[in-house]
Amino acid sequence: MVSWKVLAGAAGAAALVAAGTIGFTAASANPAPAAALPPKGARAVVRVSPNPATAHGQEITITGNCGGGTGLKTVVGGLPGHPALADLTIVDPNPAHYRATARVSDRIGNGVGPVFVDCGGEAGVTLLVTHP
Question: Cα separations (Å) of 31 from 20, 27, 36, 44?
Answer without folding.
Answer: 16, 6, 14, 27
